[in-house]
């Protein structure tokens, strides 16, 4: 489990077959082989590490459901260590189990930061509610506006300058794909009432 508060950035060093090697010198002393790490919001297992980088293996299903297959050498990725019983939950409960891939439709500057509008698959739209939580590439965000799936499913979130500068979002552009995880509580509520 994660909280969606990004603590570190990594840089893709190598990405081939089912292996992803990420350079992350500032985080390396906190990592343990066999433990989980969220990479752009995807919960993965650390399979190797050295003094400068970590390696994770990626299953075919993960490639199908996420935007990880589109990563290239040099790309920045959001990294988050798992929550512990003493972790301050300042985001929301994020599992690292991505629901699907969204596409950035618009990046707009406003007085207090940026507004990001993301198009999403219709099967995800039912879990997107205004003022609810959502994880975009692992970042815990609050939904400002939700567009119903009949009108072309999308949502808008606000990004404060600190988050923009300290996550991989600073490099995104319109048309880029991002990993989307909706709020687990909403999924359970829907399951119980349908």
Report on this model:
With 194 residues, the chain is mainly β. The protein has 4 helices and 12 strands. A 6-stranded antiparallel barrel has the order 1-2-5-4-3-6.
Lateral strand order in the biggest sheet: 1-2-5-4-3-6
How large a portion of the residues is in β-strands, by DSSP E? Answer: 35-45%
By CATH, the architecture of the largest domain is named Beta Barrel
Mean pLDDT: 93
CATH topology of the largest domain: Elongation Factor Tu (Ef-tu), domain 3
Which overall shape is indicated by the principal axes computed on the Cα atoms? globular
- The separation of the N and C termini measures 26 Å
Class derived from helix and strand content:
mainly beta
Count of alpha and pi helical runs: 4
Helix content: 10-25%
Query: What composes the largest sheet?
Result: 6 strands, antiparallel, barrel
If you compute it from the alpha carbons, what radius of gyration comes out, rounded to the nearest whole angstrom? Answer: 16 Å
Number of strands: 12
Total number of domains: 2
> Which sequence of SSEs, written as H and E, runs from N to C?
EEEEEHEEEHEEEHEH
CATH classification class of the largest domain: Mainly Beta
- Provide the low-confidence segments as ranges: none
């Amino acid at each position: 489990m994660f909280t969606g508060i990004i603590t570190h950035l990594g840089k893709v060093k190598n990405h081939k077959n089912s292996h992803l090697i990420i350079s992350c010198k500032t985080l390396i002393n906190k990592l343990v082989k066999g433990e989980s790490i969220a990479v752009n919001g995807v919960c993965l297992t650390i399979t190797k590490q050295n003094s400068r980088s970590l390696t994770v293996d990626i299953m075919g299903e993960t490639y199908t459901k996420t935007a990880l297959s589109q990563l290239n050498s040099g790309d920045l990725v959001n990294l988050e260590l798992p929550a512990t019983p003493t972790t301050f939950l300042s985001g929301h409960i994020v599992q690292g189990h991505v629901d699907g891939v969204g596409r950035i439709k618009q990046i707009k500057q406003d007085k207090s930061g940026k507004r990001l509008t993301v198009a999403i698959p219709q099967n995800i739209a039912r879990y997107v509610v205004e003022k609810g939580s959502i994880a975009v590439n692992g970042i815990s965000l609050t939904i400002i506006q939700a567009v119903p799936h009949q009108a072309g499913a999308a949502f808008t979130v606000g990004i404060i300058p600190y988050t923009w500068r300290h996550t991989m979002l600073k490099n995104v552009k319109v048309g880029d794909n991002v990993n989307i995880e909706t709020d687990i509580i909403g999924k359970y509520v829907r399951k119980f009432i349908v």
